[in-house]
Specification:
heterodimer; A: 253 residues; MetI-like fold; B: 269 residues; alpha/beta; Rossmann fold; 2 domains; 6-stranded mixed sheet; 24% strand
Chain lengths: 253, 269
């Protein structure tokens, strides 16, 4: 993002906030729409009391657990399915059948199996976030330049060396494209899995649900803002890691 | 010549492509010896299967019948006894020039200090040592192919296989590369099998030019090129050079009147 664009983005946000604040101040919008200062105050209260730590911690635990499993299984299986035709042929029909299902539809089934537990929540996060990474990795491997693989074989690389020294780095740009989509879905599903089911326990979803029960729209907005901040920070972290690992990819950024 | 055994020995090599229910004969029982230390080129009409032929020698494409031996040892799959240079750059874009050239040595377990010594030697040979920290994407096409050559030489193969390595370069860079290749080749003393569609390139570089017929590929003629080395670009203007060129041109031109069995080609060439 260049400097000029960053400036415009900042001005845009400030203008919207001021407008919102102004409308709320002169009571031109209903109170349930809250206002930026009220929301900020609610956020500050949550931080000061330390309450937010447990909610964020619980939510991040679920989403990051799911995301790490996506990285390991999604990338690992994607590479194998992309590289070995037989493995690819085995997985393709399964993947094609499950991919179009909205995974949230499986939540009631998972609840029957595992109850309303973290296992259920992490599973639904994993199931949703798995596909973009798996598909991007698999297709990335399949679109690798043949001469890179040939050159490696020519130089005497073993199967294993071929996979982790050529196929993996060669596919990494595509893997990150998939991971970025998966990371976004991770946060969506973290939230979705927390607002369905029992409203006791910790998590940003629960915070919203509980605030709703007592009519505190400011806290509801505050929780949404925290999720937005978390999502933004983690996306930035992912982009940082990507530009570190893909320093050689002069086309990116 | 170090010994009587040819560097590359090809016997009755045949390649049939099956496309649907139709079999296309691409290479018809070609036998060929590349003597140790010689530079041998294959020229042929576009799509005749000369590139396929080279890829089979490299072990990248499966043959239908026949044998390929490198210094007497039969080969089936790719291996570091044959160094292949591809038409398009096969350098890894995620590795800098140094690490690309060191790659083959690394996977073969050559210790780091030894690796550096070898890589430095070959990068200096191709005059690109100052560019060791550059990425392939930061180099020109000609420089990339020089790095590719250094990479192939670094793991010390018995023979070099070159598939139109200068095919994607402009005419002037191409001529520079031909002079460079001759210099590097004469220092390395490797046996080379070089595929090109450029008759002049083949005559300029080679001790021997093999003329392939159109599909299915068979050997039309084998021509020994008797010029002293080192050769320089002024050779292009000599009448003897033009005689070789015209003779080969005629051989290839006759091919155009033969019916074409198939226009499809799996590997370009």
């Amino acid at each position: 993002m260049d400097k000029k664009f960053q400036k415009i983005a900042a001005i845009e946000i400030i203008v919207v906030m001021l407008l919102w604040e102004g409308l709320a101040y002169f009571q031109l919008i209903p109170t349930y729409l809250s206002s930026p200062t009220i929301i900020l105050a609610a956020m500050w209260d949550l931080i000061k009391s330390g309450e937010i730590i447990s909610h964020m911690g619980a939510s991040l635990y679920r989403s990051m657990f799911g995301f790490v499993v996506v990285i390991i299984i999604g990338v690992g299986l994607g590479i194998l399915a992309g590289y070995y035709k037989k493995i690819g042929n085995f997985f393709d029909p399964i993947i094609n059948a499950i991919n179009p299902i909205p995974k949230i539809a499986l939540l009631p089934i998972l609840m029957v199996w595992f109850g309303m537990t973290d296992t259920t929540r992490i599973l639904i996060i994993f199931l949703t976030a798995f596909f973009p990474t798996f598909v991007a990795t698999r297709d990335g491997v399949r679109s690798m330049k043949q001469v890179h693989l040939w050159a490696a074989e020519n130089m005497g690389a073993s199967q294993l060396q071929l996979l982790y020294k050529v196929v993996f780095p060669g596919t990494l740009p595509k893997i990150f494209d998939g991971l970025r989509v998966s990371l976004g879905l991770t946060f969506v599903m973290m939230f979705s899995s927390e607002i369905i089911g029992a409203s006791n326990g910790a998590g940003l979803g629960f915070l919203i649900l509980n605030a709703d029960l007592v009519g505190r729209t400011d806290i509801m907005f505050a929780a949404v803002a925290f999720i937005a901040v978390l999502g933004f920070i983690f996306d930035r972290i992912l982009l940082k890691v990507r530009s570190k690992l893909l320093w050689w990819d002069l086309n990116q950024a | 010549m170090k010994n009587k055994m040819p560097a590359i020995q090809i016997e009755n090599l045949r390649k049939v492509y099956s496309s649907g229910n139709e079999d296309v004969l691409a290479i018809q029982d070609v036998s060929l010896d590349i003597p140790e230390g010689k530079f041998v080129s294959i020229v042929g009409p576009s799509g005749c299967g000369k590139s396929t032929f080279l890829h089979i020698v490299g072990g990248f494409i499966q043959k239908t019948a026949g044998t390929v031996r490198i210094r007497g040892k039969e080969v089936e799959k790719p291996g570091p006894d044959r160094g292949m240079m591809f038409q398009e750059s096969a350098l890894f874009p995620w590795k800098n020039v140094f690490d690309n050239v060191a790659w083959g040595l690394e996977v073969q377990g050559v210790p780091k200090a030894k690796r550096k010594e070898i890589v430095e030697g070959f990068l200096k040979l191709v005059r690109l040592w100052e560019f060791r920290n550059h990425l392939p994407s930061q180099l020109s096409g000609g420089m990339r192919q020089r790095v590719s050559l250094a990479r192939v030489l670094a793991f010390n193969p018995d023979v070099l296989l070159m598939d139109e390595p200068f095919g994607a370069l402009d005419a002037q860079t191409r001529e520079e590369m031909q002079v460079e290749l001759q210099r590097i080749w004469s220092e390395s003393q490797k046996s080379v099998l070089f595929v090109t569609h450029d008759i002049e390139e083949a005559v300029f570089l080679s001790d021997r030019v093999i003329v392939f017929s159109g599909r299915p590929a068979t050997i039309t003629e084998i021509i020994d090129i008797k010029f002293d080395r080192p050769r320089d670009l002024s050779l292009y203007k000599s009448s003897q050079f033009r005689d070789y060129r015209n003779h080969i041109w005629d051989l290839l031109h006759e091919e155009h009147h033969k019916p074409v069995t198939s226009t499809s080609e799996v590997v370009n060439g």
